[in-house]
Amino acid sequence: MLAERVQRMSRVGGAEWLGAVAWLGVAFILSRATILAELKPFGPGIVMAVAGLRPRLLWPVVVSAGIGSAWGLPGLDSWIRLATLLSLGVTYTLYRGNRVSRPPGALVALGAATVILVRGLSQVILGPSFYGWMLLIFEALLAAGLALAWSAAAVSRYREEQLLGLGLLALGLLLGLQEWRVGGMSVQSLVGRLFILLAALIGGAGAGAATGAVLGFLPSLTSLTAPALAGLLALVGLTAGAFYNLGKLGVVGGFILAHLLLSSYFLGAEGANLALKESGLVALVVLLLPGSFLKGLTACITNVNNGNIRRENFVIPKRWGQVAAALKRLGESLEAGGNNGTTSLNIALRQIDRLVCHGCPAHKVCWELEGDKLREVLKGLLKKGGPLLVSELPEWLKSRCGKARELAQALAAQPWGCASDKVASPLGLLLGAQFQALARLLEEMVSEASATDEEELDPYFTLEIGYASCARDQDFTCGDSFLSTPLGRGKYLLVLSDGMGAGCEARKESRTAVELLKDLLVAGFPRELALRLVNLVLLLRSPLESFATLDVAVLDLIQGRGMFTKLGACPTFLLRDTQVLTIKPQSLPVGILEDIPVEVVEEELQPGDILVMVSDGVLEAHRDLSEKDKWLVAALRRVSECHPQELAERLLKQAVALAGGHPVDDMSVAVARIQVS
């Protein structure tokens, strides 16, 4: 019995030691986390939380956080932050000396007051400024909010509060890992991609996309970065989660596939190579994780009972709705930023301040006392652009500045040399529109999840489809591509694409367009978002001029409606009895502009209707271009009862004959007949 008790006590003691070490490591990393290069609220926040949750670990955590907070900072700033944390430790030690239990709110309020008092005293001694006071008050309030969230999450029974606390902890840890690198790879990026992959494994496409979107904007909290990374990681998480039903191998495969397809488009060649290395390492780690670990993690987050995920119908739609609201707000913010433009010169000035002037003894004189004069001079030099010599700096600035050479180099290196203070952000507009469309997709998923008792209706109509094509004269490969596939819920997709030029390259462009559009629509993407994404991929696919037309028809075989969208494509012809209707919604082909207008035309479908889609080579076969639509309309009016495949081949033969037997462009004809099922 004594031996068993000693063994049990040793196990408990070992677990406590491991827990204490974990707290110290977390405090060290959190205290290094920086927001906007000046705010460090996570260190004081973890000390405030530990004072209420683990008072015996207060001083070890204070020391660990103090070391992390002062690491790498200039001498005076590091001492101020260390003094702040030590003051928190002394305050909480004295406060708890009377052995009276206090509510967490009182402890947090006392900690915030201590931070403001100590930091405010340093402001008074070193020279007060309005900006400095606002900064320290904001940092103290942020620290108090973090401490309250962590304290509530530790004792709360509500899953939302627990996940909020866990999310804020993960955010702080990721920010604290920013400057750490292993083998040339960013530890922050590795851990972030691991979070995305685990979110896709646990929560599917929605959780993966939301995690990717949040982590994609994480670097912008510490430095100025392009929003392209957010779009990449959101699409990576969405693609990985789309293979949720295939298990671990399917999700990891989707994760790697998305990086292979999209990294070079968003990050360039060098960034893509690094992203592929990081994603490959993360994928290997997840594959090596034991199944018991993943089940335990899933149980912790999704509340698993007896190994089966308990999907509460009233919780899942609510969470999806919250994610959709967050993505919608994110999209609105990006679009607003893109419409308003950004003050590029002010951004450049902040960069120069951080890179050159930070820590300089004359910083207060230059940037505060004579800040307006200095900013006007630097803006004028930035607007001038090009190489800059030290001799071109004003005399008063050269005589005062001890880093005149570095200042001139920093000014010349800024990419914002322009005559306007405003610069548009088309990428922000584009990503904003995509995030809003993604929010609409999640809202549709919420409505579908809520309507679980609704039975899917059988289609009232069916389709018979035929397709015929030929390459232009002296070519062996037709550059056109056609695809037809069901989309679910009684809808059917017909899409015809004509790649630029002819031959293999044109075929590659058109095939990419139809396959990608099909995959996005089958996955449930709204038609407008799917077309914009296809346009973006083709735009980034090649630096050379390259585009493809898209002729898209989505047929609702339950309600008898057809929705037609054309991006640079020829008209669609609808044969009803002896009448021929011409459908002509128009827009530019995909792959030319960053953003394209998408026009949709709806037509009612009736039994016996015949839809004919053609590429421009068919219409332009007639020598008189003014007659290019009329000859096909006349041919359709003479059509007798026949199978769609036979009709497609007949129309193609007539087009080749009109071209004198030597087509100057690829020709394709797709025919679909609507029948009652």
UniProtKB/TrEMBL annotation:
Pinpoint the PPM-type phosphatase domain residues.
Answer: 464-674
Signal sequence range: none
Which PROSITE patterns does the record match to this protein? Answer: PPM_2 (PS51746)
| Keyword Membrane in record | yes
Cite the entry's keywords alphabetically: Hydrolase, Membrane, Transmembrane, Transmembrane helix
GO molecular function terms listed in the Swiss-Prot or TrEMBL record: phosphatase activity
Q: Where are the transmembrane segments?
A: 17-37, 79-95, 107-125, 131-151, 163-182, 194-217, 224-244, 250-268, 280-298
Does Mitochondrion appear among the keywords? no
- Could you tell me what this protein is called? Serine phosphatase
Q: Which organism is it from?
A: Thermanaeromonas toyohensis ToBE
